[in-house]
Structure formats: C-alpha cells, structure tokens
Amino acid sequence: MEERKVLVIAYYFPPLGLSGVQRVLKFVKYLPEFGWKPIVLTAAPKKYYAYDDTLLEDIDNEKIIVYRTGKLPDNTSELKPRRFPSYFLQKAGRAWLQTIYQPDSKIRWKKEALRLADRIFKEHRIDVVLATAPPFTDFLIAREIYNKYHIPYLIDYRDEWIDNPFHFYATPFHKLYSIKLEREVMQSAQKAIVLTRSAKERLLLRHRFVSHNDVIIIPHGYDSDDFARIINCPSDSENFIDYCPNPEKFTITHSGLFQDNRTPRYFLQALSQFLSKNKEAREHIEARFIGLMRKNHLKFVKKFNLEDVVNITGYLNHSQTIAQLLSSDVFWLMLDDNVRTPGKLYEYFGAKKTMLICAPQGTVRQIALESKAAISSDPKDVDGIEKALTDIYRLWKSRTLPVPSDGFVSRFNRKILTEELARELSLASER
C-alpha cells in the first residue's frame, strides 16, 4: 500500500516553546503510527517569548519531514527570547496589528508559505492537508492550496476565531471581514476540528450551512511518553531529573503564562489570607510558578508578603516542566472566560494530581470537576479560593488528596487523540 502523506500547516512549531506548539507537535509525532507521513510547512523561528529545542526530539523520525520558510539556526540554543510584555502593551500591540492586518499579522507570511507549498507538491504526492490555528492565516493558506491543487483539507482550531474575546476588531467591518473569511474556509474545508462541545455549538450557530458532522471534537491532551521518560529514567543517568515530591512540603503549582487578562492576584491574596489564619502552615507550603511572569504579577508576591512561600522557576523546557508537575501535590489553574481552553489542564490530568480550578461556570470547570479530583471556585472570589485552599491543605495533611482515575485520564492521551485525527484524515482523503 502506498504511503499516505498529510501536509501540516503550522506557523508555530518547535523549536518555539510554550503550549501553542504542543498539540500539533504531538499529532505529527504519532501520525506515522497510524499510517500517515507528516510533512510540516512552518516558519523558521523569529523573535518569540520562549524556545525549547528539546521538543525537536519528538520529530527525530525519518517518517516526519519539516519544511521551513527561512533558515533554522545551526545552534537553536542560541536563540534569544523576547521579553514577555505587560497586558497593556500586549493588548495595544494586538489592536494595532489586527487593525492593519487581517485575519492576523502572519498574513505577511502567506505568500512565502505558498511558494514553499508549491515546492512541496513538486516533491511529494499529498493526500490531505491539515491546518492549525492561530494564526488563522494558516487556514487561508490551506484554502488556497485546495483551490490550486484540489486537495481536501481539515482545519484545527486551537483557539476560537470570531468569538475570541481577545481578538480586536477596529470597526464592525473588520469583524464582518473575518466572518466572511471564516465562512469561505468553512465552505471548502472537509472538516473543522474544535476542542470542546461549546466551541462546536458556537461554530454551528454562526454558519448555518455547516452540518453537525462537519465539526468534530478532539480535545487537548497529554503525552504519556513525556511522563514515562521522567519516571523511568535511571537516577544515575545524565538525563535524570528529580521528580519525587517532598513529603514535608505542600506544593501547589501553576504552569505556563498568565496570558491576556489572567492574573495570580486573587490566588495570592487568598493564599495570604489562608496563611494569616493558619500560621503553622507557612513552613510547609510552597506556591510554585513555572514559566514567564509579568513584572506587575511579581509585585503581588511582595504585596501579600509571600516571598518566603512563592517559588518562581522561570521558563523551563518541557521535560523539566513535567518533572516539576510530578513533584507537586496540587495544580492550580485560573481562567476568566469560557472561550479559551488551556492546554495545561490536560497535562495536569496526565500528572494525576489534585486540582484547584478557578474558573467561571462552563466547559473548562466542568471538565476539571468530571475528574473527581478538582475543587473549584470563581476566578476572583478570594474568600472562595481561601476556603478551597483550606480544604485542600486539610486533605494533604491527612494524605487523602483525590486523584483522577486512569479511565478518566486515558481519554486525553495524545496517542488516542491522534488516532481519531488519523481516522478523519483517511475519510477526507478518500472523498
């Protein structure tokens, strides 16, 4: 049987770091196990907030080919990350760029990407195309490839497009234009892939011509290999990373960026209140923050007198992050809307620990509670978060912290999710 090939269009791809690259990276890693040879069309890394060249190990496979516009540096460890901006600067920069460029600033990459796509089609027989977004320019590239080569394509929404509360529209015409672009993509795409049922419902409501079967749900996930690599590594190996929890420390961990309007303020205020009422707990608690932190977020640590309690690790590569998760007792996640679905939630599931979920009523909070290992509160309810911390600390002291079941966690295994994707690629390529 002739090998089937899928062209994967992904502007964000390793050695870029952060959570935005994880989903497509793991799809590409596992697709060869289900009969698909991924050919990735991406960009050489430019200025970005974080890099992780260890992620390239996942694509060290002769069945995976990566084409880049631009040149990858010989030594990716020399890439210098840019500073993570304040929310004000991020918001202002986004407003400026999204006023000028539609659907996003990466539209400037489109012409270069299409030229590289022409080269790829000369060198390979492509059966189907998969485009992941943001940036939503990736969808437009897939549509143009379809128009030129008549190759079916699927689109993968890592974030929502029109309904994203952080997508800036300078005028009603800007929004109408984005809706028009999305409609044209949806009209020619074989399938749309979304993360949650609520995202699917919003897409179906906006585009009435789209049928229920045209939109499928494949959630974020975790890679069991990432955890096994840490757990099974011999202690005398140079790659060993200590992941054993300290039984005398109650460690509550947040992993990742506080993107957009997310903030640790209410959690830190609640932690301060909890410690003022439970003074003996202070010597036992560590609040660990893995990743980049904004300057104004660091000020809250001082404001609430938590310098001796908070441990800020800075950005870590993915293996180091997994080890930090495994050495924690509880995970904390904060979300202020019901549109975005943080990838960290599913890696929290993979680590099989208790979770404190501070989010409004909605999909993310519901999924966390389904694990039977989460305690919830509203994101800005300081007293509610304090009560949750009190309950969780009591459970830690009695060694009765709940953990999600293997059956629940296995639903989000990246390998299983990739098998679902492979099935959809096969259906699309046969039409």
How are the SSEs placed, and which strands pair?
Blueprint: E1 4-9, H1 22-30, E2 36-43, E3 65-69, H2 87-100, H3 110-123, E4 128-133, H4 137-149, E5 153-157, H5 172-188, E6 191-194, H6 197-206, E7 215-217, H7 224-231, E8 250-255, H8 265-277, E9 285-290, H9 295-303, E10 310-314, H10 318-326, E11 330-334, H11 344-351, E12 354-358, H12 363-370, E13 374-377, H13 382-397, H14 406-410, H15 414-429
Parallel strand pairs: 1-2, 1-4, 2-3, 4-5, 5-6, 6-7, 8-9, 8-11, 9-10, 11-12, 12-13
Helix pairs in contact: 1-15, 3-4, 4-5, 7-10, 8-13
Question: Terminal Cα separation, in Å?
Answer: 18 Å
Q: What is the topology, as strand order, of the major beta sheet?
A: 3-2-1-4-5-6-7
Number of domains: 2
Number of helices: 15
Write the element-wise H/E pattern from the N-terminal end onward: EHEEHHEHEHEHEHEHEHEHEHEHEHHH
Runs in which pLDDT lies below 50 for 5 or more consecutive residues are: none
Secondary-structure-derived class: alpha/beta
Helix content: 25-40%
Structure write-up:
This protein has 431 residues and is an alpha/beta fold. It folds into two domains: 4-221 and 414-429, Rossmann fold (3-Layer(aba) Sandwich), CATH 3.40.50.2000; 224-410, 3-Layer(aba) Sandwich (Rossmann fold). 39% of the residues lie in helices and 16% in strands. It has a seven-stranded parallel beta sheet with strand order 3-2-1-4-5-6-7, with helices on both faces. Strands 10-9-8-11-12-13 form a six-stranded parallel beta sheet, sandwiched between helices. Strand 5, helix 5 (172-188) and strand 6 (191-194) form a beta-alpha-beta unit. Helix 7 packs across helix 10. The longest helix has 17 residues, at 172-188. The radius of gyration is 22 Å and the shape is globular.
